[in-house]
Each structure stands twice: as C-alpha cells, then as structure tokens.
Design goal:
Layout lengths: L1 E5 L5 H11 L6 E7 L5 H8 L4 E3 L8 H14 L4 E4 L8 H6 L4 E5 L11 H8 L3 E8 L9 E8 L6 H24 L3 E4 L2 E4 L2
Parallel strand pairs: 1-2, 1-4, 2-3, 4-5
Antiparallel strand pairs: 5-6, 6-7, 8-9
The structure holds 5-O-phosphono-beta-D-ribofuranosylamine.
Length: about 200
C-alpha cells in the first residue's frame, strides 16, 4: 500500500509510521511526504529516510481548490493509494476528497466527536474530562467529522496541563496510526454508512 503523508509541522506521527514500516509491522510504503510549509520538520524526516519530500506553496495557487488539485496531482504522480494527514493544518476541499474516495485518513488528539478543531488537548483539560485520547478517522468535508476507524483512551490527571496531556496522547497516536494503516493495508477496514467495521 502506497501512502502519501501530508504534514505541516514536526512530523512525529510520520516518524512513527516510517518506523513501523522499518520494523516490519506496517506493510506499506511512504511514497511521498508533502507539506504546505517549507520549513516543516516532517520534510526533513522524510529526506533522512530517502522518501521524496515535496513542498507546495499555497500562496502560489489562486484558491484552496487549485492548491488541493496540485496536491492531488503530486500524490497521483507517486501512485499514492492512501492519504494520511498527520498534523496537516488545512481543511481539504471536496475536490480533493473526490480524487481519493474513502482513502483519506486523519489523526486527531481527542476522542471525537468531543473537542474537534485546534488545541483539542487544551479543550479537554479546560472542560475537565477525566479521559481523552486520540481518534483516527476518515476525512470528510467537515472539521474532524468523518467516520471513526479507531480510538485510544488516555486518562486525564488532575494536575495535567494541555502540554502534559498532549504528550501522553501523542504516545498513543504513535501506536494507533500505524496500527490503523496496517488494517487498511490488510483490507480489513470496511465502511457501511457512517460506521466503520474492522474485519477479523
Ligand atoms: C498530532 O497531535 C495530531 O493528532 C494532530 O496534529 C499533531 C501532529 O503532530 N492532528 P506531529 O506533527 O505528527 O508531531
């Protein structure tokens, strides 16, 4: 399975995916890493592993659709089958999703549908929930609203800050994302309406 990773920042989830592949736990290949930020550490991580790293400048495209079409074209060039968003700070357009139907996934640092959007860990701490976690879901046109594939639960402690909770959640993200991608590689992820089933 050829994965294209879209990342805007430091890329620790990308790193976890690469390492799972190198350990033989994930039967896939990261065919390309693409970013909307030239300085994204994710691009550097890709290069260090001999993976094509592409920066596409949003400013050089007249609209979000135009940008997304350029991204999709680049992904197709590398024969990407599954697109994994990993800290990608843009909402993808319907035109993009149409090119990868049920093939775009994202990881979010909360138990959706709680705390969508930015600063999910801070939202969780401020709300006072006792458990949070992370969610891998299919991407649809909304913000963190797509069908849920898998979640991992993390306890929230009384003295947690957004940062300490983020760190605890991140460890689970690094386990959950490669695990879900492996399920996809094995063809075990089945979507029926809103629900996702994992075939045995
Ligand atoms: C992660 O917390 C992920 O859940 C969220 O953005 C963060 C990306 O971190 N979507 P990294 O760039 O993978 O280190």
């Amino acid at each position: 399975m050829k994965i294209g990773v879209l990342a805007s920042g430091r890329g620790t989830n990308l790193q976890a995916i690469i390492e799972a592949i190198e350990r033989g736990e994930l039967h896939a290949q990261v065919a390309v890493v693409l970013s909307d930020h030239q300085e994204a550490l994710a691009l550097e991580r890709a290069r260090q592993h001999g993976i094509p790293a592409v920066f596409l400048d949003p400013k050089r495209h007249p609209s979000r659709e135009a940008y997304d079409l350029a991204v999709a074209e680049e992904l197709k060039r590398y024969q990407v089958e599954v697109v994994a968003l990993a800290g990608y700070m843009r909402i993808v357009t319907p035109a993009f999703l149409a090119r990868f139907p049920l093939r775009v996934v994202n990881i979010h640092p909360a138990l959706l549908p709680s705390f969508p959007g930015v600063e999910a860990q801070r939202q969780a701490v401020e709300y006072g929930v006792k458990y949070s976690g992370c969610t891998v879901h299919f991407v649809d046109e909304g913000m963190d609203t797509g069908s849920i594939i898998a979640q991992a639960v993390v306890p929230v402690q009384d003295d947690d800050t957004a940062e300490s909770l983020a760190e605890r959640i991140l460890k689970e993200e690094h386990r959950l994302y490669p695990y879900v991608l492996e399920l996809m590689a094995q063809g075990r992820v089945e979507v029926r309406g809103r629900k996702v089933y994992i075939r045995r």
